[in-house]
Amino acid sequence: MGKKSLSFFTIISTVICVVFVCEAAAPAAAIGNQQFFWWIFLIITFLVPYGLAVAELGTAYESEGGIIDWIRDGLGDKWAARAAYYYWVNYPFWIASLATLFPFIMTMISGYTIDFEANIWVTLAIELAFTWIVTFMAFSPVADSEWVLNGGAIIKVAVAVLVGCIGIWYASKNGFATDMSPATFLPDLSAGNALGYLSIIIFNFMGFEVICTMANDMADPKHEIPRAVILGGIAIAVIYLFASFGIGAAIPADEIDPDFGMVVALENMVGNGFLFKLVAVMFLVTMFANMASWSFGVNSVAAYAAQTGNMPKAFGKMNPKTGMPDGAAIINGVVTSLILCIQLIPNDFIANNIFWMLFGLSVVFLLLTYIPMFPAFMHLRKVDPDRKRIYEFPFKGAMFKIALIVPMIELIAAVIATVIPLSAEEMGDKIPMIIGLIVFLIIGEVFRIVSAKGRAEEYKGLTPELAAQRNAEEAAAEAAEA
C-alpha cells in the first residue's frame, strides 16, 4: 500500500501555523484602512513571486541550511555568511521585543499597578526571566515538537479571531472608532510611519519555504505548492485584517500603540474582567510557543553555518545527548539579555517605544536575509539549467527577471522605510534604531571575517561545471538507492 498523501487542508494549516505571528497584528492595524490596499498589492507583487521562487529552490536544492545554502550556492560564502548572521540575529531581537511586553501584560492581568520606569530593575528581572525560560526550552527536543508548533498556532489564531469577533460586537453597539470614509482606504505615500509598518506585512509572508519540506508527501506538488502559497497568503491576510478590524473598532488607527495595541483595544472593549484575562493569558502563551517553535530552526541554521565556516565556531556546539544546538541557544540568551539592558540608558524614546524599536530591528534583519536570495536564484537558473525540478517558477525571459527584481526592491524599500527617518519629526524616533542597526551590521561583518579564517578557501558559488558534477553525483546516488 502506498504512502498516504497530505491533504491540502493540512498543508494550508501547517503554513498558517508557521507563518502567522499574533503580536504583529497591532503594528499592522496602525497602518489604518489603507492596509487593505497594501495587503492586496503585496500579495500580488511580493508573496506570489517570492513564494513561487522558494517553491522551486526548496524542491530543487534540498539541504539542511535552507535559504542559507541557496544563497551560498548562488553567491558564495561571503553572502551566505551575511545571510546566516542576519537570520540568526533577528531572533534575539524578537525574543527581547516580546520580553518587554511580558511584565506590562502581567500587571494588566493581575490588576496590580507598578511604575516600571521607576522600578526598571523589576522590569528587567521579569524580562530576563522570560528570556532564559525561552532559552532553556530551546535545549530540549520538545521545542521542535509538532504539538508545540501546532498548539501555539491554534491559540494564536484563536486570539486573533476572538479580537475580531469582539470588535464586530463592539462596533455594532458603539460605532467604529476609526474613520471609515472611502478616502482612508487609499494608500498614503506621505505617511512615513505607515510606510515603515509595511515591513510588518512583508514580514508576515516570511516562512513560506516550509511548504517545500512537504513536497515528498504531496499527491501533486507541482500544482499544490503554488496553490498553498497563494491561498495560504490570502488566509493569513484575512486573519490579520480580521484582528485589525477588532483593534480599530476600539482605537482610532492614528492612536494605536504598536506595542500593546491588541491588548489595550481588548481591554477598552470588554473591560478587565474574565474574558480579557483569558485572552491576555492566551496571548502570553503564544509568546512562549512562538519562541520555542522557532528556536530549533534558527539555532540549527546557525549551527549548520558554523560547521560550514560561515558563523563563529561557538554556534556549532551540539549537545551530544540531545543533538540540540546548545551553543547557539546560550548565545541567544546572552545577546538577548544584553539587548534588554539598553533600557538602563535614560532615554524617553527607548522607554516609550522599546517594543517597536526591538521588533522593528528583528523584522529588518529577517528581511535583509531574503534580499540576496533573489539574485542567488537568478544565478542558479543560469548556471544550473538542467537541474531536476519538482516545481518550476512559471515566468520566463524578461518576466522572470521582473518577477524577482520587484520583490527584492520591495524588501529594500521596507528596510529603508522602517529605519530611515522620512520626515524631520521622525528623526529623534529613528536614531536609536539606526544606531542599533549599524552596530549589529558591523558585528556581522566581524563575524563573517572571523568565520572565514576557519575555511581552507572561499567558496564562490556554483559554476556550470560544479553544477553538472553535483547533478551527476546525485543522479548516481539515486540510482544506487534504487
Q: For the record, what CATH class applies?
A: Mainly Alpha
Instruction: Tell me the CATH topology.
Output: Amino acid/polyamine transporter I
Could you estimate the helical fraction of the residues in percent? 55-70%
Q: CATH H level: which superfamily?
A: Amino acid/polyamine transporter I
Biggest β-sheet strands, sense, barrel: none
Low-confidence stretches: none
Radius of gyration: 22 Å
Overall domain count: 1
Shape: globular
Strand content: under 5%
The CATH architecture assignment turns out to be Up-down Bundle
Compute the number of strand runs: 0
Structural class: mainly alpha
- Kindly report how far apart the N and C termini lie: 18 Å
Query: Could you spell the SSE succession in H and E letters?
Result: HHHHHHHHHHHHHHHHH
Mean of residue pLDDT? 84
Explain what you see.
The structure is a single chain. By secondary structure, the chain is mostly helical. It has a single domain (8-481), classed as Amino acid/polyamine transporter I, CATH 1.20.1740. It is built from 17 helices and no strands. The chain has helices at 8-19, 25-29, 35-60, 67-75, 77-110, 120-137, 146-174, 192-203, 221-250, 261-270, 274-307, 326-340, 348-370, 373-383, 397-419, 427-452, 464-481. Helix 4 packs antiparallel against helix 5 (77-110) and helix 5 (77-110) crosses helix 6. The chain is globular.
